[in-house]
Specification:
Elements: H1 3-15, H2 20-35, H3 49-61, E1 67-70, E2 76-82, E3 91-97, E4 117-118, E5 121-123, H4 131-147, E6 155-160, H5 171-177, E7 185-190, E8 197-198, E9 204-212, E10 214-223, E11 227-228, H6 237-250, H7 259-271, H8 285-290, E12 306-314, E13 320-321, E14 324-333, H9 338-349, E15 353-361, E16 364-365, H10 371-383, E17 388-394, H11 400-403, E18 409-412, H12 424-427, E19 434-436, H13 437-453
Parallel strand pairs: 3-6, 3-7, 7-18, 9-17
Antiparallel strand pairs: 1-2, 2-6, 4-5, 5-19, 8-9, 9-16, 10-14, 10-15, 11-13, 12-14
Helix pairs in contact: 2-4, 2-13, 3-4, 4-13, 10-13
Length: 454
């Protein structure tokens, strides 16, 4: 037996927690949930209810009382609470979303909603984003029910709708209208953290998210003088918009390090034996990133704000100059970078183009020196002693943004052990999304270990 497999088995046996039934269930639940098509194109047509009912039935089978809640018909959320052994302790929210982004079957090697298990891999949309975590949550708490196990503090489970769009029917609805269900929750965990990142030279990292950049999706509108396409027109709305979009796309944003990103750079530099003082104002961050090899991918998107033009709309006939033109920009903002982002966009758009938020959400930060982060680190490294946990900030966002309205500090922690060459991040919203069954086994062991003692 390989050294890492022995470590996992030994840790799992010592914890006396995850049994073979839980290992079987985490794979089956992942596959079953994938087969329930919950594609969310953002047009309101998604129906998460069949997946929510599947989750609710498995909670109820374990004696855990689920509450099903909807803002819109068929957009169903599931919430349940498991009481801990220390009633005075702060509660922990564990949440996963039930919707997925759409997939075109013809582009895939395996049908995206087959949930097929082949050669030790579960295939399909949601395998990593994030029906795998939903399945881990279910498998872990059902194991507790079979063994009479109770966590130290209350655990609130939330399976949400609409995360892949606005979250208005999901976490936003729950936070705004059902805050009582999350009473006592001070921290939460969810997707995009504690997965294996192979950094070269046999180094295995497990990045745990302790922050998210804010969402700043913008609508730009240029106004001008409509007219005939054959006439000279210095007030052409399309030209004005194109100039603004070009300036935005070419803009070089300055480095703005947050505490989470500083911690990530400090730990990565130490692991790669790079002698640098990250705290020094003279630190050349881009030069440092060039010395971190593949590990730089974990940090590079979050050392500065960003703004990428993504959509253009103008005109209705080739020989007619329209009076207005519209563009959309996907902006992302580091914690504390909101004012700079707005000022910069004012300057880049100029006097002839207006902009407003099409959709906006806050940036988040969580402490990396907290007992909860230390507990997550310990659980991962208990099951992979050669692995190293590092903090990082997500470049995108999760439902943690909505739950932050309730004062809940969010971490990205959905553990998976992945083989070298398995590009986890590329599979998010990508083609041929899949997850190894052994990765799910590792994940449910780590999740169980953390949740029982956190």
């Amino acid at each position: 037996m390989a050294e890492n497999q022995r470590a996992e088995q030994s840790a799992g046996t010592a914890a006396g927690a995850v049994d073979q039934q839980a290992l079987d269930e985490v794979v089956r639940f992942t596959s079953d949930l994938i087969r329930i098509d919950t594609s969310n194109a953002g047009d309101g047509a998604c129906r998460e209810r069949p997946a929510a009912e599947y989750v609710a039935e498995r909670l109820a089978d374990a004696g855990i009382e689920p509450v099903l809640l909807e803002r819109s018909k068929g957009r169903t959320n599931v919430v349940a609470r498991i009481e801990g052994t220390e009633p005075s302790a702060d509660a922990l929210l564990v949440h996963g979303h039930l919707d997925v982004v759409p997939a075109v079957p013809g582009d895939w090697r395996v049908h995206p909603f087959s949930g097929e298990v082949r050669d030790g891999v579960v295939w399909g949309r949601g395998a990593v984003d994030m029906k795998n975590m939903d399945a881990m949550m279910l498998a872990a708490v059902r194991r507790w029910a079979r063994g009479g196990v109770r966590p130290r503090r209350d655990i609130v489970l939330a399976f949400t709708a609409d995360e892949e769009a606005s979250a208005e029917d999901g976490a936003g609805f729950l936070a705004d209208h059902h805050a009582d269900l999350f009473e006592g929750c001070t921290e939460g965990i969810s997707e995009s953290g504690a997965f294996t990142f192979h950094a070269g030279g046999g180094m295995r990292l497990y990045p745990i998210a302790a922050g998210e950049r804010g969402t700043a999706w913008l609508k730009l509108t240029a106004h001008g003088r409509a007219g005939h396409g054959s006439k000279i027109n210095h007030a052409n709305a399309v030209s004005r918009l194109a100039s603004a979009v070009s300036r935005i796309g070419a803009h070089e944003w300055p480095v703005r390090l947050t505490p989470t990103v500083r911690a990530a750079l400090r730990e990565l530099a130490a692991l790669h034996a790079v002698d640098v003082d990250v705290e020094s104002p003279e630190c050349d961050v881009d030069a440092l990133l060039s010395k971190l090899g593949p590990s730089a991918q974990l940090v590079a998107p979050t050392v500065r704000n960003s703004a990428n033009p993504t959509m253009l709309t103008a005109g209705y006939k080739v020989n007619v100059i329209p009076g207005s033109a519209v563009a959309y920009v996907d902006g992302r903002v580091v914690p504390g970078g909101e004012a700079e982002f707005r000022t910069t966009m004012d300057a880049l758009t100029g006097p002839d183009v207006t902009w407003d938020y099409h959709h906006g959400e806050v940036a988040l930060q969580a402490p990396v020196d907290s007992p909860t982060f230390a507990a997550m680190r310990a659980s991962v490294e208990r099951f992979d002693p050669q692995g190293r946990v590092v903090p990082y900030c997500m470049s995108g966002g999760t439902d943690a943004k909505q739950f932050s309205r309730l004062g809940i500090v969010g971490y990205g922690f959905s553990p998976l052990k992945l083989p070298e060459g398995f590009d986890y991040q590329a599979l998010f919203h990508g083609v041929d999304e899949c997850v190894p069954t052994e990765g799910l086994h590792f994940g449910v062991r780590v999740l169980d270990d953390f949740l029982r003692g956190a």
